[in-house]
User: Fold this.
Amino acid sequence: MRKIPKSPEPQVLIDNKDSWRTALENNPSKHNRNKYRHPDIKKALLDETYEKCVYCESKIGHNCAGDTEHKIPKSKRTDLIFEWSNMTIACSECNRRKLDYYDPACMFLDPNTDNVEDLLMHLGPIVHNYHPGDKRSEVTVNILELQSRKPLIGRKIEKLQNIKHLIEHIVDEVNPTMKDFLRRELSESCDISAEYSGMVKACVELLPTNWDRS
Assistant:
């Protein structure tokens, strides 16, 4: 999980959210409720999240469907269905696990507002709450099963193996131009836009000083 700045509200939501909210209040039909699924809103959310699930960092695509996620569930606060600050993107697996969880005293971590990278730590492919007793981190990790989802853990292990091979290649490479190219590739894997970059960044930060000068 990485901290992701909230992008500007899409114009279609600025123009229509008040009328959509009024229509929903007058007629709580599925049609009126689901107007937040407008393609311009979905695209803005995907752009904002780098086409990743904000919780597990899996890339959204053919093998990982993405859903518009309401941080405060629609079933709990219908007045926030069309609020931009309440929307993000989650993969179907994270969305299914979160369901309608809502506890005002112990909310899920919010990657748009919380310093999630200071609250969570990566031990290989496993995510833990960094500060024991931090209930919000604990609830987020446990409900999303970030410690135990086998398909997710498997994909992250595969990513770590690729990173390990890349690091070994950098160490062994003697051509300066090629070495710089490989360093850039590793840097891109740590970039916030890359899949599982929180894990990769944590792994790279554990490397000894001047490791790539060998």
Remarks:
- The chain has a mean pLDDT of 93.
- Residues 150-172 form the longest helix (23 residues).
- Strands lie at 66-70, 87-91, 120-123, 126-129.
